[in-house]
Every structure is written in structure tokens, then in C-alpha cells.
């Protein structure tokens, strides 16, 4: 039926992706998370209770309390490492880009990783905190000592990389499930770094808040990403048009006609006989 054909065509046609907006609720959560971020930084700078708790956890040495899970967690923490996770998520989003016919999934991933590198990287270098294994004085905050572990990059990367999948989910149910999975992965990666002794507890909490701030800020970049998508698609079309091979008309090559067998023979001569005009002489008188 015609109605069924129209339904099939409507299902196969890629739908326009829904771009989240910066709502009041999201903006309120962003402001509250920013306050928590600043509170953690101030607490560490002033060597208050976050630093005391850091040292209590560090001296407890979780990796010595439960050594049987050390090997497993050495592999599990890779889920927060930027290289492997970015490649895995980019592969999935590349397939989604092909199916949906839009560059938005890859643009969202690239924008989020760029924001993560700019914000978390600047904080790491600027505050220069040393990790637990390199601490020099018990009870100190180890700030501005040439380190690069505050906030935790593994934790922030886990929040952003896996959180992007929830951000790009197309249905509310998928978004809820992906959000829970991303939260559990980020929680597990953060606590694993504390267990291994590579980060203070305050590094992890600041990494969680830093990653969440990146995800909450993404709606502000939806309009630039939309313009970038239009520009990239137009550029790709121009490249394809220039690279396309233009057929050049070729003049036909004349083909010699086959020689007939009679052409090789001698020309036939007319026989001389009675009635011939050329071979009959005049009779005598």
C-alpha cells in the first residue's frame, strides 16, 4: 500500500538531532558544581579537612589492605585513560555519524575533549600538586611543587568520555541507562586511583566536578558545532567535486576497411571478338 511505503521512507530518512539547550535547571546545576569545585580547591590550598582526610586514606594504604584485587584494578583503571577510551568512543560515534548522516556525534566528542584538556590541563599545571607517592611532608597539601595530579585526569576523563554517550542518547530511557553506567564507571575509576595510591581523595572529587562541568557546559557550544558541521560538509562537497574525474571526449579512430580478395587480382581485360569496338578492324575494299 502507499501508506506503508511512506512509513518505510519516513523511518529510513535520518531525523534532525535534538540539540540540548542551556535551561535554568542545567544552569543552576552548573553554578552549584562550580561552587563545589572552588570549595575543594580552597580547602586544599588552606590545608583544611580535605587534606587531613587525604593523608588518612593515604596512610591506610588500600592497596596493601586488599592486594588480591590489585591486578584487576590495574586493568580497570584504563577505562579512565584518555587514549584508549577516546578511540573506543570515537569508533562508536563514527558509526552513529554514518547511520544518522550528521557529524554532530564526533563534533560533540571533539569539543568535550578539547574543553577537558584546556580546563583540567591548565588546573594541573597551575596548581602543581604532587601525588601520594611523591609526598615530602606528612600533613602538607603538596601544592605548587611541580606535580600534575590535581585534579585527577583519569577521573575527569571517565566522566566526560562516557558521559558524552549519555549526552548524545536519543531516547529518555537510553539516556538514563547511559547516565547510570557512565556514573558507575567514573566512580569506579576514581576510587581505583585512590586504591592504587596514584591520587589523593581530593584529586578524585575535583576530577568528578571538573568532568561534570564540561558536560554541563556543552549546550553553550551547540550553535558553534552546528555552524562547524555546515562548514565541514560544504568543504567536503567542494573537495569531492574537485577530485571527481571529468570524462574527456576522445576522437574516433578510423578503422581501415578490409581489402576484398578481388583487389589483389589483375584487372580483367575485355576479350577481343566479333562485335568488339576496340579489337575489330575495318574490312578491305
UniProtKB/TrEMBL annotation:
Region of interest (Disordered), ranges: 256-285
Domain Phosphatidic acid phosphatase type 2/haloperoxidase: 104-219
Entry-linked InterPro entries: PAP2/HPO, PAP2/HPO_sf
Transmembrane segment boundaries: 27-49, 69-94, 106-127, 149-170, 177-198, 204-221
Keywords for the protein's UniProt record, in alphabetical order: Membrane, Transmembrane, Transmembrane helix
Protein name: Phosphatidic acid phosphatase type 2/haloperoxidase domain-containing protein
Species of the source: Streptosporangium nondiastaticum
Amino acid at each position: 500500500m502507499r501508506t506503508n511505503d511512506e512509513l518505510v521512507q519516513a523511518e529510513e530518512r535520518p531525523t534532525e538531532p535534538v540539540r540540548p539547550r542551556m535551561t535554568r535547571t542545567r544552569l543552576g546545576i552548573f553554578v552549584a558544581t562550580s561552587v563545589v569545585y572552588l570549595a575543594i580547591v580552597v580547602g586544599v590550598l588552606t590545608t583544611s579537612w580535605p587534606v587531613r582526610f587525604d593523608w588518612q586514606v593515604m596512610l591506610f594504604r588500600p592497596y596493601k589492605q586488599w592486594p588480591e584485587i590489585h591486578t584487576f584494578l590495574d586493568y580497570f583503571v584504563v577505562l579512565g585513560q584518555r587514549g584508549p577510551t577516546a578511540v573506543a568512543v570515537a569508533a562508536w560515534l563514527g558509526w552513529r555519524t554514518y547511520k544518522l548522516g550528521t557529524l554532530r556525534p564526533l563534533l560533540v566528542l571533539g569539543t568535550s575533549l578539547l574543553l577537558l584538556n584546556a580546563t583540567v590541563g591548565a588546573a594541573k599545571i597551575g596548581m602543581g600538586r604532587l601525588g601520594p607517592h611523591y609526598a615530602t611532608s606528612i600533613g602538607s597539601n603538596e601544592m605548587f611543587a611541580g606535580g600534575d595530579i590535581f585534579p585527577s585526569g583519569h577521573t575527569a576523563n571517565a566522566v566526560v568520555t562516557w558521559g558524552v554517550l549519555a549526552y548524545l542518547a536519543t531516547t529518555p530511557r537510553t539516556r538514563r541507562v547511559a547516565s547510570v553506567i557512565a556514573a558507575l564507571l567514573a566512580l569506579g575509576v576514581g576510587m581505583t586511583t585512590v586504591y592504587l595510591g596514584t591520587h589523593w581523595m581530593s584529586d578524585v572529587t575535583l576530577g568528578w566536578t571538573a568532568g561534570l562541568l564540561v558536560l554541563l557546559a556543552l549546550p553553550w557550544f551547540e550553535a558553534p558545532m552546528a555552524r562547524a558541521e555546515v562548514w565541514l560538509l560544504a568543504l567536503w562537497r567542494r573537495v569531492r567535486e574537485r577530485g571527481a574525474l571529468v570524462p574527456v571526449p576522445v576522437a574516433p579512430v578510423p578503422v581501415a576497411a578490409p581489402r576484398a580478395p578481388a583487389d589483389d587480382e589483375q584487372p580483367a581485360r575485355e576479350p577481343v571478338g566479333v562485335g568488339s569496338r576496340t579489337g575489330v578492324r575495318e574490312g578491305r575494299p
